[in-house]
């Protein structure tokens, strides 16, 4: 099969590798129909995630068709169309029993495209399939569903839920890329008073307005002043960091009100300064997190009911074998206007025979 293989910092290639095979009785093999590229994949390519070893197939989000399952798999069967979650869950360890699947200690957590071969390929092996793939309703389009593999549950759980968004809150989202836009869309489910979006790129600020931001500002002093002006100098109730650079995190801590919440969602590759000399007295709660995907079944129901704005988030589509072109477009979002890129997306009505 063909797959996008990480070859070291700054290097990857779409190349021929061996087909995946079942290794455990709890595995499933999924033929990939649609994948997307995550900002975390770009971090890997920049060398920010040293655990990813050269030779690893990248990607942790997909929609596809089950073609083979191990003897212990009960929840899905060959021929079913499924969402492959970015998080794998053993279902038995302490954290899985608490619903904290991202912290799985039984061989799961974020492993696809990180510690084992991922989804940016023609086929993928998914461990612990019963808890790590989700059957899809036939009416749900693959290009929409693939966004529920990672960015929407991540924004909702790590941003909105960790940030304790409540009705009437003022929310500031720093970073209006895909995660930030998903945070805006899912924060609106809680009827906040206002949402302020901050980003350096004017096209992303325009997108933030379409997704429900009430006010927008460029990063820096302009954004901090706008938040102060709109909150009578108090600061935002919840500030969601959706960039992953030191400057954006430090900006978030300056824009939060006393007793407020800073929810960090961004993937950080460099140290950020925590100004406790300013924050210790403000009763501020700072949360970090890896998505657990416990909300995925609920979000899938909302998607099927037309309650999530996924379609407007996909700005570019490519055939699956145009992976390198898709990475180039996604990595130059400021020039290309890319929000989310989706590769593939065609739906199959009959089970294909896997190439041997």
How is this fold's topology laid out?
Blueprint: E1 2-6, E2 12-16, E3 28-36, H1 39-45, E4 62-69, E5 81-84, H2 94-97, E6 123-126, H3 129-132, E7 133-135, H4 142-145, H5 151-161, E8 170-174, H6 178-187, E9 194-198, H7 202-211, E10 215-217, H8 221-230, E11 236-241, H9 246-255, E12 256-264, H10 276-279, E13 285-287, H11 296-304, E14 314-318, H12 323-331, H13 333-336, E15 340-344
Parallel strand pairs: 8-9, 8-11, 9-10, 11-12, 12-13, 14-15
Antiparallel strand pairs: 1-2, 3-4, 3-6, 3-15, 4-5, 5-7
How would you explain this protein's 3D organization?
It is a single chain. Strands 3, 4, 5, 6, 7, 14 and 15 form a seven-stranded mixed β-sheet that branches. The protein starts with a strand and ends in a 12-residue tail after the last strand. The protein has two domains: 2-150 and 292-344, Medium-chain alcohol dehydrogenases, catalytic domain (Quinone Oxidoreductase, Chain A, domain 1); 153-287, Rossmann fold (3-Layer(aba) Sandwich). It is globular. The chain has helices at residues 39-45, 94-97, 129-132, 142-145, 151-161, 178-187, 202-211, 221-230, 246-255, 276-279, 296-304, 323-331, 333-336, and strands spanning 2-6, 12-16, 28-36, 62-69, 81-84, 123-126, 133-135, 170-174, 194-198, 215-217, 236-241, 256-264, 285-287, 314-318, 340-344. Helix 5 packs across helix 6 (178-187). With 356 residues, it is of the alpha/beta class.
């Amino acid at each position: 099969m063909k797959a996008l293989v990480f070859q070291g910092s700054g290097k990857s290639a779409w190349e021929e590798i061996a087909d995946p095979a079942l290794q455990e009785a709890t595995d499933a093999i999924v033929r990939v129909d649609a994948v997307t590229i995550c900002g975390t994949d770009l971090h890997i390519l920049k060398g920010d995630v040293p655990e990813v070893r050269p030779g690893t197939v990248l990607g942790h989000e997909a929609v596809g068709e089950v073609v083979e399952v191990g003897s212990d798999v009960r929840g899905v069967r060959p021929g079913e169309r499924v969402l492959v979650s970015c998080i794998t869950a053993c279902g038995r360890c302490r954290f899985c029993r608490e619903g904290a699947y991202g912290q799985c200690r039984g061989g799961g957590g974020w492993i696809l495209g990180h510690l084992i071969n991922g989804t940016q390929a023609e086929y993928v092996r998914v461990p612990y399939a019963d808890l790590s793939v989700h059957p899809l309703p036939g009416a749900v389009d693959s290009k929409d569903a693939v966004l529920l593999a990672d960015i929407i549950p991540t924004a909702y759980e790590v941003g909105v839920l960790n940030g304790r968004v409540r009705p009437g809150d003022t929310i500031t989202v720093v970073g209006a890329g895909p995660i930030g836009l998903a945070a805006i869309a899912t924060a609106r489910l809680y009827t906040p008073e206002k949402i302020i979006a901050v980003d350096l790129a004017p096209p992303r600020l325009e997108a933030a307005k379409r997704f429900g931001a009430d006010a927008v500002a460029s990063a820096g002093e302009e954004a901090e002043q706008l938040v102060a002006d709109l909150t009578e100098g108090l600061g935002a109730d919840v500030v969601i960091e959706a960039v992953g650079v030191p400057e954006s995190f430090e900006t978030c801590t300056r824009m939060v009100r006393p007793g407020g919440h800073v929810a960090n969602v961004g993937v950080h590759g460099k140290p950020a300064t925590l100004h406790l000399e300013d924050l210790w007295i403000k009763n501020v709660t700072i949360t970090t997190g890896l998505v657990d995907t416990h909300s995925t079944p609920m979000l899938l129901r909302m998607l099927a009911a037309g309650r999530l704005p996924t379609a407007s988030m996909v700005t570019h589509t490519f055939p699956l074998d145009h992976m390198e072109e898709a990475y180039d477009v996604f990595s130059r979002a400021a020039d290309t206007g890319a929000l989310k890129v989706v590769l593939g997306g065609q739906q199959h009505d009959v089970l294909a025979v896997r190439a041997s």
